[in-house]
Write a structure and sequence with these properties.
By secondary structure, the chain is of the alpha+beta class. About 20% of the residues lie in helices and about 15% in strands. A hairpin with a 6-residue loop joins strand 1 and strand 2.
Length: about 80
């Protein structure tokens, strides 16, 4: 019996800073699947998913905001 593997969609880098600028530190943020607007923000992942679903988004993009004294950076090689 083979296990079903998750679908990982590759996309080009996108600047989300304007969408995330007002998000609280340490929060989970749910974006619309096209990454054009915030559909939920919560302290827990499950709560952010529920908010997104309540707002009509079936496949939200989820982002964990860094804590206040941390930063967010892309990987460097």
């Amino acid at each position: 019996m083979s296990k079903k593997k998750p679908v990982i969609r590759a996309s080009s880098p996108r600047d989300l800073s304007s969408l995330l600028k007002d998000s609280p530190a340490g929060a989970w943020v749910a974006l619309s699947s096209d990454k054009t607007h915030v559909v939920g923000t919560a302290k827990t992942l499950d709560a952010a998913i529920l908010q997104a679903q309540f707002n009509g988004e079936k496949e939200p993009v989820l982002i964990k905001m860094p804590l206040e004294d941390e930063g967010m950076a892309a990987g460097v090689k």
